[in-house]
Amino acid sequence: MNQKQINRLEMYQTTLDYLDVHNAVWSTVPIIGKYKNALSTIVTSIKTAAADQADARVFIGKSLSALKKNIAAKMDILDDMLEAYAVDTDNAELTQQANNSKSDYFGLPNEDFEIKVKQVIGLLETHLKAMADYGMSEEQLKDVKADYDQFLTSRGKPRNYQVASSVATQDMETLFREGTTATEKLDRVMKRYKRANANFYNGYVAARKVVDN
What we know:
Layout: H1 3-21, H2 23-26, H3 30-49, H4 64-88, H5 92-97, H6 102-106, H7 110-126, H8 138-154, H9 172-190, H10 193-196, H11 198-207
């Protein structure tokens, strides 16, 4: 990657990080989750495509630890929904399987962490439709799957879920064009917060700025 591409990739990652931190603000708007997941998949694909380039080492994105912490936080929220559903349906086995905290996830060795996350994602997929009343959505599941794939990629492993995997075969320039399209779509839907939540919107705009080195 050239420096311009590295700077743009950093902006994509900063934007994703900002949306992750402020998930509670926008999570009730499914289209934002859809566009965010598209951008996350593109970022993972760019890193995969650049893996053999020496200059790709200049930008690695989130550290493995930060990625793990982010996934653990998301799984904690999803586990709470799954546990609530399990209790209401008198499913003792599912209740036990869903009884995991952020620290439970984060404290696992990476290999065990991968196994645990994949296991619970499988449970969430099984009960996805039934959990709609508990706030569970397909976009939330896609979001954590995209992060999980990025975690695997950072560990030198093949992606598991291949969310929107068709982008993986595209060349670098095409991927960056896709990234521009994804962020522009995000920009349009985020304008809803320009007056409704100015602090959040201004933070998003700041995250979207490309910093030239």
